[in-house]
Amino acid sequence: MSILVTGGAGYIGSHTCIELLNAGYEIVVVDNFYNSKRESLKRIAELSGKEFTFYECDIRDKEGLDKIFKAEKIDAVIHFAGLKAVGESCAKPLEYYDNNIAGTVCLCEVMKENGCKKIVFSSSATVYGSNNVSPLKETMMTGGTTNPYGTTKYMIEIILSDLFKSDNEWSISILRYFNPIGAHKSGRIGEDPNGIPNNLMPYITQVAIGKRECLGVFGDDYDTHDGTGVRDYIHVVDLALGHVKALGRALNQPGLDIYNLGTGTGYSVLDVVKAFEKASGVTINYKIAPRRPGDIATCYSDPSKAQAELGWKAERGIEEMCADSWRWQSTNPNGYPD
Ligand code: NAD
Ligand code: WQD
After folding, report:
1. Confidence at residue 330, expressed as pLDDT on a 0 to 100 scale
2. What is the structure's pLDDT at 1?
3. Is the CB of 229 under 6 A from ligand 2?
4. d(CA 148, CA 251)
5. How far is CA 316 from CA 27, 39, 124, 236, in A?
6. What is the mean pLDDT of the chain?
7. In angstroms, what is the span from residue 300 Cα to ligand 2's centroid?
8. Residue identifier of the C-alpha nearest atom 17 of ligand 1
9. What is the mean pLDDT of residues 225-241?
10. pLDDT at 162 (0 to 100)
11. Which of 64, 61, 4, 9 is nearest to 35 (CA)?
């Protein structure tokens, strides 16, 4: 069974590759290294003890993708490749629409032409917009996204559902991730952001390692238990295992399925800071800063559908997430080497 993993060199993709190899799948990875390093592929092989095929290819390169499908026997695709920085997407909307939407359309066209109709897609809690009240359920309205990145995920969900309506032989699994953090237990792979991190956990770990002076906590006057924003942080290895389960279902039955992948528990920014300090023994210098535009007070999942239908549940708690993030950052202070 051979699975094409687009964006497999990235943060979530690399962890998922390891779990796919551990589960006995053969994988073919495609990445253009826009936001990742070759070294992560070496470490996937090192940690899994298995070899796999890799192609450096952009998913918008139709000819290139077609050659890969002709050379390999691909049974299904897990599609991570895409751009993901919210702020950057406001500055460069056309790049985001092109990479994420045109890239996905190109990939689906090549899949269809080669008779491969099974795909697991990386969506995001961002598709719920700002009008729903947590816990968020898959049946709630989507849309009302507040930035081009979020809109690409929302639009791709619509494109995939139209594709399924046009041809019920497709198996499409849309996974809405909440806030992935943590790293592989070994500390050998993890999140390696370029420049100043946008997300909370990499910012905290960079303050802890001394690369950044102080964490800005974006707002302490939200309607939450301590005034800071509440999110559903999920360990990246739990997320990776969710993909293995979703793939198993997609391989066995056609359909369009949507699943939240979260823990169902919300933690505030200050809860995360405290949990990190406890797990690492390092004190985090922080100061309260103005709210970040576009942020909402609270966002957490109802993950019960994934448990009922996929038999999947997040197992790793916030301290383990913090300890694993810290192991990765402290043993790789500059991320992956070039
Ligand atoms: P990442 O940037 O670490 O990984 C994405 C990978 O895709 C990178 O290796 C990048 O080089 C590659 N890529 C980008 N454009 C490409 C293209 N046109 N052709 C080939 N490769 C390309 O990001 P991640 O955190 O691992 O996220 C993976 C997916 O999950 C993304 O689609 C992202 O939008 C989605 N997602 C991420 C989060 C999060 O917080 N990390 C949350 C929800 C959804
Ligand atoms: C978490 C909390 C911030 C940084 C984003 C995307 C979402 C998804 C996951 C891809 C919030 C606060 C953060 C900092 C802070 N990505 N914070 N200081 O915004 O929930 O979700 O990543 O799909 O689409 O929007 O995650 O990690 O940026 O923020 O106080 O330096 O931490 O205000 O409350 P977010 P995040």
Report:
1. 98
2. 85
3. yes
4. 31
5. 26, 26, 20, 9
6. 98
7. 12
8. 58
9. 99
10. 98
11. 9
13 CB within 6 A, ligand 1: yes
In terms of phi and psi (left: phi > 0; alpha: psi -120 to 50; beta: otherwise), the region of 323 is: alpha
Can the peptide bond before residue 135 be classed as cis, meaning omega within 30 degrees of 0?
Answer: yes
Structure tokens that stand for 243 in this block:
């993909």
- pTM of the prediction? 0.98
The one-letter code for the residue type at 76 is A
pLDDT band at 338 (very low <50, low <70, confident <90, very high): confident
Residues in the chain: 338
Reported as a single tens digit per residue, the pLDDT across 235-275 is: 999 999 999 999 999 999 999 999 999 999 999 999 999 99
The identity of residue 187, as a single letter, is G
**Is 128 known to be catalytic?**
no
Residue 104 pLDDT: 99
Q: How far apart are CA 134 and CA 57, in angstroms?
A: 39
- Tokens in use for 77? 């695709």
Residue 52: pLDDT band with limits 50, 70, 90: very high
Place of tokens 């997609």: 250
Q: Which of 11, 149, 259, 336 is catalytic?
A: 149
Closest by CA position to 55, among listed 124, 126, 121, 6: 6
Taking the CA of 121 as reference, the closest ligand is 1
